[in-house]
Design a protein that fits this description.
3-stranded antiparallel beta sheet; 38% helix; 68 residues; alpha+beta; 3 helices
């Protein structure tokens, strides 16, 4: 098996999360997901995606809805 690449494309991250490319661009633009701009393209460090996924605040808890 090939090792995980150090950098992922927007399309690769979108496919992994099963969302649109635009969703990933919004996360990058909003500062939620770190990315490196290379020319007109973005590359997301694999560790940045891992960190984003590890953020406990991002996960929904089952049961009753959260109240403010």
């Amino acid at each position: 098996m090939d090792p995980k690449p150090a950098f992922l494309t927007v399309a690769e991250v979108a496919a992994t999360l099963r969302v649109s490319d635009m969703t990933i661009y919004r996360l990058i633009a909003g500062g939620e997901l770190r990315a490196l701009k290379v020319g007109r393209s973005y590359r997301i460090p694999a560790e940045a995606l891992d960190e984003w996924l590890q953020d406990d605040a991002r996960w929904e808890q089952g049961g009753a809805a959260k109240r403010a």
